[in-house]
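Known limitations

Structure tokens in this collection are predictions and should be treated as such. Users comparing against experimental data should check residue numbering before alignment. To illustrate the layout, the record for Protein-L-isoaspartate O-methyltransferase is reproduced below. The input appears on top and the generated tokens appear beneath it.
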Amino acid sequence: MKDTFKHKGLRQKLVAVLKAKGITNNDVLNAIGKIPRHLFMDSSFLDHAYQDKAFPIAADQTISQPYTVAFQTELMQVKRGDKVLEIGTGSGYQTAVLCELGAKVYSIERQHELFKLTSRFLPKIGYRAKKLIFGDGYKGLVEEAPFDSIIVTAGAPFVPKPLLAQLKIDGRLVIPVGDNVQTMTLFVRKGQTDFEKTEFGEFRFVPLLEDKN
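Generated tokens:
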């Protein structure tokens, strides 16, 4: 669980790459510059931890490409104290970024192996979500709604209606929609049934699976 000067230097290089790719939110860049991404990966991948690439983790899932994490987080416009729902805890890296931004994070993971690993790991490196839940992300978390923003970190073939319903007015849902290739999509809730939709180009994610595994 070491974080060395070398790791810190590699993180600053990664931040420079993300800036060059168009990420402008300083809070997001600072979070990525601070979080030891190499600790979220198998030690055999240490050389790859600060490249702008996705990598395999347990349960046939991946840790998202840093650019994708930064892009989605920037779209959420997180403010300190915001109540945020994350669908797909995965390695916990995105969770850590949201915690670093001062959000109150509720995160749902449906792969039990990953849920157990990440629930133990995040507090060890100082990141405490409000709640980590083993469950079905398609249903959201109605008992904690409404949320300032919701992020989906897996490719969704369609937009789950419960997630739209659990947003506050002016709340933001950031979700990659599509089967093989996903279109990053932002929904902003303008009224009870009124949502403003914006699309932001193509990304590739592992699929968002229904039910628990």
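For this record: The mean pLDDT is 93. The first strand starts at residue 55 and ends at 56. Please report discrepancies through the issue tracker.
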